[in-house]
Amino acid sequence: MSSQINPSSRDTASNQEHVRTPQNENKLAGSVILFVICFALFLGAIYSLSFLSLGNPWPMAVCLVLFALAFWLPQTIFGRSDSAGEH
């Protein structure tokens, strides 16, 4: 995949604006922080299963909520799911 910007990817109204490419879309620190948060949610979901028993269904409910948050947050709140089709 080429990192060059072709004329069709620029905004015709203003050539002075910042053009978003995959190389400058986000900062490394933001990506690392987002990864740590989502991975902690995922590990918390797995850890909650250690308390699961037939008499106590709440660890499974906690697992499902944390697991859903681990995937929902980056895709909706942080807006990382909509960048694949831009380039």
Automatic annotation (TrEMBL):
Protein known as: Uncharacterized protein
TM ranges: 28-52, 58-78
Keyword tags: Membrane, Transmembrane, Transmembrane helix
Positions of the UniProt region annotated as Disordered: 1-22
Domain of life: Bacteria
